[in-house]
Q: What sequence folds into this?
């Protein structure tokens, strides 16, 4: 790993306060945590809290930086503190005193609020993107989600109906013994369960949120906070303004601060100006900032699969495996790598042959890293008797390098005998198209990226999320891939008690899916740590498990006087 350790900022005369302006992706605004993606965690952290969280790292090589620490909970349950049962299936959490909601009575956050958060992630209107993780782990949660979804097929999706169902039914494995004590029971032991609890989906949720449909503008406008900031104003898709939460007590929050008086998020494609006063690009890799430091090396945690091609396997064009194989052979991955090196100088990328990148559980160090062979692709299409029809639709996000990658891949496919048209979509429309291909007018291919949602024992964030055929909403299997052998390997990995057994199963599942051409890996990209010192902002420190994003609660804008 080549990145240098972070060192403390020198003492300055600047005082606490000011306005922190942040460039944020449009799909990661800190709104309703029940349906926020894992990528929104650095923003959700501003106003919500979970049972466990992450701490910043001055040295990104510090193993403690990727280990969850207690947040709403007083301790992380273990066999040593009697919070984890001998079967490793029963977790007991004791709530931290002094944590309060931003309500007129400043009501304490209780174990019942955490139970409500687990229920609300299962809502059938906009379920959490992380739901599949919890459904395959927590006892009874999959059944709760499936029953709610079935009920919703013949019931209205208004807030009152949703709240009535939620409050009349229980998740067998998630319950409060009293206000201060929470029990979570697992269907099986899970090496990564505590890491999952730091995701936005596991946030505590107050009863006031029952009055609004999850993910709706009304819910966003009436959020109640228990973190250091609260949402004061927002314009969906454009900006969010947060101010200090008067109910937040620093003594009851060991891992967050509130250095700025106000945080303003400008929602965009992430390509904001690096030199704007007191403006922090939270994901510097997107902007290609020279101040960003790549975290390189095979031992570096957090490499991403970025980009890859996703095939919509529901479309009959992919029925013949030779047509899918032609796609994998047509793409000139080396050319896409050069495109990234031009636009993101200093950020290491590697041509990818495997689905799981380096530094993640289940990565195959013998990655074959193949690149384009259009002649062989044409031969496969000819042997399959593939006839030209309407051009394939390749959707891509308008943000980042999505357009450049999509047009390069479309040109490669067209040259190989698969005429392809690239179609750009705004971030929200693109996310909706992935979730519901048929409802979005249909598409055959998509340019996508996958980053790890946590960094230890994390094979499921690639193999399970992208490959498992499951009726539970959530996950990233947007192409509808279904293979019983792969599902069996995923179950074997989830059941494994030893990391090496889990890794072997994750690796085998990923290899089979790539052989089936469920996806076409293109590049593996190294993580990029936060810039050391944006103009007029001190206190910059990364959160490695959250994509090395800036801890916005600790960023300190310059205040004159």
A:
């Amino acid at each position: 790993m080549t990145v240098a350790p972070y060192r403390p900022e020198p003492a300055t005369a600047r005082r606490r306060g000011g306005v922190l302006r942040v460039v944020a992706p449009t799909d990661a605004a800190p709104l309703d945590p029940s349906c926020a993606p894992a990528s929104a965690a650095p923003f959700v952290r501003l106003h919500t809290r979970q049972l466990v969280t992450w701490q910043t790292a001055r040295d990104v090589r510090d193993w403690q930086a990727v280990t969850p620490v207690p947040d709403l909970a007083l301790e992380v349950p273990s066999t040593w503190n009697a919070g984890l049962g001998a079967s490793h299936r029963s977790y007991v959490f004791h709530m931290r005193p002094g944590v309060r909601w931003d309500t007129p009575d400043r009501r304490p956050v209780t174990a019942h609020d955490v139970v409500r958060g687990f229920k609300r992630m299962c809502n059938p209107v906009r379920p959490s993107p992380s739901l599949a993780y919890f459904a395959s782990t927590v006892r009874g949660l999959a059944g709760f989600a499936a029953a709610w979804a079935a009920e919703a097929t013949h019931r209205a999706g208004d807030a009152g109906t949703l709240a009535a169902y939620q409050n009349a039914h229980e998740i067998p494995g998630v319950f409060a013994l009293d206000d201060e004590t929470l029990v979570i029971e697992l269907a099986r032991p899970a090496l990564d369960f505590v890491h999952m609890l730091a995701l936005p989906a596991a946030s505590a949720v107050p009863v006031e949120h029952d009055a609004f449909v999850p993910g709706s503008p009304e819910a966003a406008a009436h959020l109640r906070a228990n973190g250091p900031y609260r949402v004061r104003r927002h314009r969906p898709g454009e900006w969010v303004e947060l101010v200090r939460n008067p109910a937040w007590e620093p003594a009851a929050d060991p891992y967050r601060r509130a250095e700025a008086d106000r945080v303003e998020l400008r929602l965009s494609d992430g390509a904001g100006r690096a030199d704007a006063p007191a403006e922090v690009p939270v994901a510097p890799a997107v902007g290609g900032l020279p101040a960003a430091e790549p975290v390189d090396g095979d031992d570096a945690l957090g490499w991403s699969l970025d980009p890859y091609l996703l095939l919509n396997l529901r479309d009959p064009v992919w029925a013949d495996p030779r047509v899918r194989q032609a796609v994998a052979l047509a793409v000139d991955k080396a050319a896409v790598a050069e495109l990234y090196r031009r636009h993101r100088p200093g950020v290491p990328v590697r041509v990818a042959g495997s689905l799981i990148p380096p530094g993640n559980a289940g990565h195959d160090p013998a990655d074959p890293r193949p690149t384009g062979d259009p002649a062989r692709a044409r031969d496969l299409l000819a042997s399959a008797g593939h006839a030209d029809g309407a051009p394939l639709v390749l959707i891509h996000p308008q943000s980042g390098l999505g357009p450049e990658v999509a047009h390069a891949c479309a040109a490669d496919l067209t040259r190989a005998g698969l005429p392809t048209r690239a179609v750009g979509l705004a971030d929200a429309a693109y996310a909706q198209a992935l979730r519901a291909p048929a409802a979005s007018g249909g598409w055959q291919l998509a340019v996508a990226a996958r980053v790890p949602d946590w960094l230890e024992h994390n094979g499921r964030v690639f193999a399970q999320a992208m490959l498992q055929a499951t009726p539970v909403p959530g996950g990233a299997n947007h192409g509808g891939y279904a293979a019983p052998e792969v599902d069996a390997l995923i179950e074997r990995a989830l059941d494994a008690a030893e990391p090496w057994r889990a890794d072997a199963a994750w690796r085998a599942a990923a290899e089979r899916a790539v052989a089936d051409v469920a996806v076409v890996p293109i590049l593996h990209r190294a993580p990029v740590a936060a810039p050391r010192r944006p103009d007029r902002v001190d206190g910059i420190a990364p959160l490695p498990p959250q994509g090395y994003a800036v801890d916005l609660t600790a960023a300190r804008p310059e205040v004159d006087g």
About this structure: The longest helix spans residues 499-515.
